[in-house]
Amino acid sequence: MNLIAQGISVEAGGATLVADATLTVAPGELVVLLGPNGAGKTSLLRAAIGLIPASGTATLDGMPTATMARAIRARALSYLPQARPLAWPARVRDVVALGRFAHGVTLGRLAVRDADAVDRALTRCDLNALADRATDTLSGGELARVHLARALAAQAALIVADEPVAALDPRHQHRVMGLLRDFVRGGGGALAVLHDLALAATYADRLVWMKDGRVVAEGSVRDTMTVERIAQVYGVGARIIDGDVMIDGAI
C-alpha cells in the first residue's frame, strides 16, 4: 500500500500551514516526520491521508485519499491522532475491537476472523493480561499500547501515527516504536510524527524534515541526520557520536 502525496499545500485562516510538500510511504518502511512545533507536520500528515482540504495530489495505491469512502480508507490505513480520548472507561478488549469497525462489525458480534484479529493484536502488544481491565485504570504507556493494538486489529496495510510516544517514559517510548518497527518488518508501512531525534535515528528507515511549512530534507538517517540539519531545523547545537544524538542547547 503506497501513500504518495505531491505538491501538498494547506491554508487556514489566511496562513499557509504547508507549502508544496511531497511525502511518500511504501510497504516495509517506517517514515518519520521531524520538525519543531508549528512546522506543519500534523497538517501535512492529515492532508496526505485526506482528512483536511489541501491542494496537490495524495493517493493510496492510486486512489485519491480525499475522495475515498471512509470505510474503504479505514480498511486501508489506521490513523492514530495526537489526542486519543476515550468517551467512557471501556474494557481494553473492547477498545481494541474498535479496530474492526471498518470491517462492518459491532461490539459483541465479532465473527471468528474478527475475534482472531483482536486476539492477535492483544498478543502482539503484550496486553493479554490487561484485556479485561477498564482503560481508566491503565498507565499512559499501557494505554498507548491499547491504541496501537486497536490500529493493528484493523489489519490495515498502513499505520499513520501522530506523536505516538508523547508523554511516555523512555521504556514505553521504545516499546511503542518497537511495535511499529515489527509491523513494518511484517510488510506494513508506517508514518509517524516524532519529536525525539534519538528515537527517530534508532527506528526510522527514512526521515522527512520540515520547517516553516516546507519539507527541507528527506532521506535516510545516515544522509540527513547531521549536526548542520539539526541546527537548521531546530536552532540547537548537537553532537552525533556513534549514531547517538546529543543536544547541546539553543544556538
Description:
With 251 residues, the chain is α/β, with parallel strands linked by helices. The protein has helices at 41-48, 70-76, 92-97, 112-124, 140-153, 170-185, 197-203, 221-224, 227-234, and strands at residues 3-12, 15-25, 30-34, 55-60, 63-64, 77-80, 158-162, 189-193, 206-211, 214-219, 236-241, 244-250. The strands form three sheets. The chain has a six-stranded mixed β-sheet with strand order 6-7-8-3-9-10, sandwiched between helices. Strands 2-1-4-5 form a four-stranded antiparallel β-sheet. Strands 11-12 form a two-stranded antiparallel ribbon. Helix 4 runs antiparallel to helix 5 and helix 5 (140-153) packs parallel to helix 6 (170-185). It is globular and about 55 Å long. It starts with a strand and ends with a strand. The model has no long low-confidence stretch (mean pLDDT 93).
Task: Give the SSE layout.
Blueprint: E1 3-12, E2 15-25, E3 30-34, H1 41-48, E4 55-60, E5 63-64, H2 70-76, E6 77-80, H3 92-97, H4 112-124, H5 140-153, E7 158-162, H6 170-185, E8 189-193, H7 197-203, E9 206-211, E10 214-219, H8 221-224, H9 227-234, E11 236-241, E12 244-250
Parallel strand pairs: 3-8, 3-9, 6-7, 7-8
Antiparallel strand pairs: 1-2, 1-4, 4-5, 9-10, 11-12
Helix pairs in contact: 4-5, 5-6
Search tags:
globular; 251 residues; alpha/beta; 6-stranded mixed β-sheet; 9 helices
